[in-house]
Amino acid sequence: MTKPEQILQDMALYNAPDVRRIEHAMKVYAWASLFGVQEGLSERGLYTLQLAAALHDIGIHEAEKKHHSSAGVYQELEGPAIARQLLSLREVPAPVIERVCHLIGRHHTYTDIDGPDCQLLIEADFMVNIEEDALGRDAVETIREKIFRSQTGIQALEAMYLGRMPA
Question: What separation in angstroms does the CA of 40 have from each of 33, 34, 77, 99, 104?
Answer without folding.
Answer: 11, 10, 30, 18, 21
